Amino acid sequence: MTRTLITGGLVITAAEELTADVLIEDQRIVALASTGSEVAAGWRAERVIDASGKYVIPGGVDAHTHMELPFGGTKASDSFETGTRAAAWGGTTTIVDFAVQQVGDSLRAGLDSWHAKAEGNCAIDYAFHTIVSDVTDEVLKELDLLTESGESTSFKLFMAYPGVFYSDDGKILRAMQRCAGNGGLIMMHAENGIAIDVLVAQALAAGHTDPRYHGEVRRELLEAEATHRAIKLAQVAGAPLYVVHVSAASALAELATARDQGLPVFGETCPQYLFLSTDNLAEPDFEGAKYVCSTPLRPREHQAELWKGLRTDDLQVVSTDHCPFCFVGQKELGRGDFSKIPNGLPGVENRMDLLHQAVVEGRISRRRWIEIACAAPARMFGLYPRKGTIAPGADADVVIYDPTASQTLSAATHHMNVDYSAYEGRQVTGRVQTVLSRGTTVLQDGRWLGRAGHGGFLRRGTCQYLG
Ligand SMILES: NC(=O)NCCC(=O)O
Ligand SMILES: [Zn+2]
Ligand SMILES: [Zn+2]
Prior knowledge:
By secondary structure, the protein is of the alpha/beta class. 32% of the residues lie in helices and 23% in strands. It has 14 helices and 19 strands. The longest helix is centred in the middle third of the chain and has 18 residues, at 220-237. The relative contact order is 0.18. Residues 64, 66, 321, 323 line the site of one zinc ion (ZN). One of its GO terms (cellular component) is cytosol.
């Protein structure tokens, strides 16, 4: 047995902050005691990490990533190896990626192919949601089996992307009805894709081909309408609902109304919607393509509403929707036709730092930072308290975070396999110093010690916000 002791840091969880020593045995946290207390003074360990002046926080849980996702004739540029390494550099120690069901195939086939991509390649632990592209009687049975076994207890459906991932309302309702009975959680990409495709064709016919039109045709109203419809369908089915990548204030208002009515409706937003805007999409010389994602970036005014939603718990989770495509050779596929720009932004390495910057700026508290980035995603997707907290019995996924270090985010220094940073040149205060993944030090004082294959697949429980 190897004992590790982290001494003297400010331990921050979603529930409390205390200056404490943390005792780890092999892969698990076994005890916490106030620094300087008699109990802590009696602890001995082979390895002692001095965290004085630093924060000791749970490793981040990023519940929305797309490593190697095939999209728009290309595939996301981070593999499970490069993407999970970058995640760890940024203080994230668990990702939940999306296994994709191809139309005509089973969910099983999609999961098998995602296991093959991830197994033996991840630096940190990982789990899978399943993207359901084809709701059939057989697939409905698979929703039961996968939820029961814990292999995948959450299922993403799309109201967008007709002809690719899109499900009509009938299919959505049937999947929701099934999850109402089996405990699975439906995740929704809420945009009216049928209407958007009409607007895309009209924009292109009018010669509007630049990246900024991506934001214009994916109208806020069409996110709000789809969010409203998804909530009503979930209500009819008696099922819980988790709306992914919420970007529009009016979509958030739909969630807030539903939650005020006591409905089991949850929402996620992403750093890009909190820190970037349509100004980025409008950057000249096709640079706006770097910021094409769906739902799209919105005008700056939406950011204050999203921050408010995070403070009031109308939004519970911040995930990255990390789906990187290089500018050269990938985003460029859409020169002359914005609809051919592969959708997605890099960010798995930046989330913890950007949210800490929000702490520095007084937008959220330190505990709320840990709640929305660690504890809530773990609870939402059945991983708590193994992940998302620092407590006896939890996996020793621990980050020593320097809250005073300053850094400049840049593609020149990041570890994601993508040739640009969506936050190029942005100064942030705070930096990950050391990262433990199940007790193993994968990053120490800016030195990479991790290895592909250390990360293991996580079976999950069901959503822990439901009775
Ligand atoms: N979000 C995005 O633009 N790309 C990834 C796929 C999705 O989450 O819809
Ligand atoms: Zn989506
Ligand atoms: Zn996504």
